[in-house]
Specification:
single chain, 73 residues, mainly beta, five-stranded antiparallel beta sheet, 1 helix, 5 strands, 47% strand, globular
């Protein structure tokens, strides 16, 4: 399955907008500069009181559908 490493820096307020459904997708960039879009509901697995901050590995199916997110390091 394809993976891509990204940096996500979202405040608590930004995460709340995603969580409440006001924003459906997360737009970020991979470590090598590619634009990456994935479902906002994925953030529920990694959000903290301060938001989402750090490097993460996203896993996608061969068809390009989001499967998982995992914090790196």
């Amino acid at each position: 399955m394809p993976t891509i490493d990204v940096v996500i820096e979202l405040s608590h307020a930004a995460c709340l907008a995603h969580y409440e459904g006001r924003v459906g997708q997360v737009h970020t960039y991979s470590l090598d500069g590619r634009k990456v879009i994935f479902p906002a509901e994925a953030l529920r697995r990694v959000v903290t009181r301060d938001g989402v901050h750090g490097r993460f590995r996203l896993t996608f199916s061969d068809a390009g559908r989001f499967i998982a997110i995992r914090r790196l390091g």
